[in-house]
Specification:
Elements: H1 12-24, H2 27-50, E1 59-62, E2 66-69, E3 74-79, E4 82-88, E5 94-95, E6 108-113, H3 116-119, H4 129-134, E7 142-146, H5 154-168, E8 174-179, H6 183-189, H7 200-215, H8 217-229, H9 244-256, H10 271-298, E9 302-307, H11 311-315, H12 322-333, E10 337-340, H13 342-345, H14 351-358, H15 368-383
Parallel strand pairs: 6-7, 6-8, 8-9, 9-10
Antiparallel strand pairs: 1-2, 3-4, 4-5
């Protein structure tokens, strides 16, 4: 039997030399690797401490009508310096608590649909006008549902209503649609959105962008800086408190700018902005609201259009606004119920006093008192 050759013994010293040679062979790559690892490590640690908490975990995308709320959620969210609770029901609507909503009911059911104003951005559900109305009605005979979400506009009002009726099978009797000043610009944004179609490539990069924004402090900082340079971030959306006097001192500067947020709030009082995209936005809005009206007629749902001013219309005393004239004529043409809330905010009172009483400081959205005003104006309409 042949003897096996003994394996060569490698000394500890030789092992160390072999190991060292792997790193000393490419010192530049080694240094680069160490720097890269250190940067990633520091970036992640910095993210844990300095990236602001995501307060929008209850929001989600939707392939049929762009975006919505996740059903049956309870979260703490934040808007400016206001922290408050948000509950969603089984339909993904904002509600006073997590609860199941039956698709059919023997009660009269009214659905409210609008953007961030009607969602109740910055206030609790019970402070919002839909919550206040719920507390003033006989809930054994009438049910109010709020299907609104931030940045909705007529195209999404139509698509979501169609989905709720034809896909979900939700039965309701009346629909109140609140058309905001900013909806007209949003119609331009959603012009190319096609319901039911998904883009895997865009979806992947959307999720990747979201991941890095939540975990990488470097990416988070660059992204925020880029938004600020594009004018996306402004005093209305800032985390710090804003002073009402400063806000009104600066509004003249805002109105004089050539391109303030692409004129999001001032297309009714700035002809240049109106001709640039306001006219087209109104055309798109009208087409989508016409389809929504036809949908409501098909399913025997009574439609009501509600309009209201932003602080920019209030400050400019834009009472007989393009927004008012367009939707008043539209409602008359298609025999749709119409509620104009412009006179409730634009009257003999000083704009500063109106703003201070009804709006969140440094913001364009209603405070609890503003929501109470809306509830007071609507309560008789929903009880008729």
């Amino acid at each position: 039997m042949r003897n096996k050759k003994p394996k060569p013994v490698i000394s500890v010293k030789n092992k160390k030399k072999q190991k060292d040679s792997r790193f000393t062979k490419n010192p530049k790559i080694t240094i680069l690797f160490i720097i890269l690892f250190s940067v990633i490590f520091i970036d992640i640690i910095a993210g844990l401490f300095f990236i602001l908490k995501d307060y929008n975990t209850f929001r989600c995308s939707d392939k049929y009508y762009h975006h919505d709320f996740i059903p049956n959620k309870e979260v703490t969210t934040k808007w400016g310096n206001r922290t408050y609770s948000v509950f969603t029901n089984s339909l993904g609507f904002r509600d006073e608590a997590i609860r199941d909503i039956t698709l059919k009911t023997s009660k009269k059911r009214i659905v409210f649909l609008g953007d961030s104003y009607v969602e109740g951005l910055g206030v609790t559900y019970n402070e919002s006008f839909t919550g206040l109305l719920n507390n003033r009605i006989d809930t054994s005979e009438l049910e109010i549902l709020n299907a609104s979400a931030v940045s909705y506009s007529p195209k999404l009002y139509y698509l979501k209503t169609k989905y709720l009726i034809e896909n979900k099978g939700l039965k309701f009797d009346e629909l109140f649609v609140f058309i905001d000043i900013s909806d007209i610009q949003d119609e331009i944004f959603y012009k190319t959105f096609e319901p039911g179609k998904t883009n895997s490539f865009k979806d992947f990069f959307y999720k990747l962008n979201k991941f890095f924004k939540r975990n990488s402090f470097i990416y988070y900082s660059i992204s925020n800086l880029s938004q600020q340079n594009k004018g996306i971030s402004n005093t209305f959306y800032a985390e710090e408190k804003a002073n009402i006097n400063v806000w009104f001192e600066n509004i003249d500067g805002y109105l004089d700018k050539k391109n303030p947020e692409e004129g999001r709030f001032i297309w009714t009082i700035n002809e240049t902005v109106f001709n640039k995209w306001g006219k087209e936005g109104l055309r798109l809005s009208g087409n989508n609201m016409k389809m929504l009206n036809e949908l409501c007629e098909q399913y025997n749902i009574e439609l009501t259009i509600v309009i209201y001013p932003s602080p920019y219309q209030i400050y400019s005393k834009d009472l007989d606004s393009k927004q008012v004239r367009y939707w008043r004529e539209f409602s008359e043409k298609y025999k749709i119920a119409f509620i104009n809330l412009f006179p409730d905010f634009i009257n003999n009172s000083k704009p500063e006093d109106i703003y201070n009483k009804y709006f969140i400081q440094g913001d364009t959205h209603w405070n609890p008192e503003g929501h109470k005003l809306i509830a007071d104006r609507l309560v008789d309409f929903i009880k008729d």
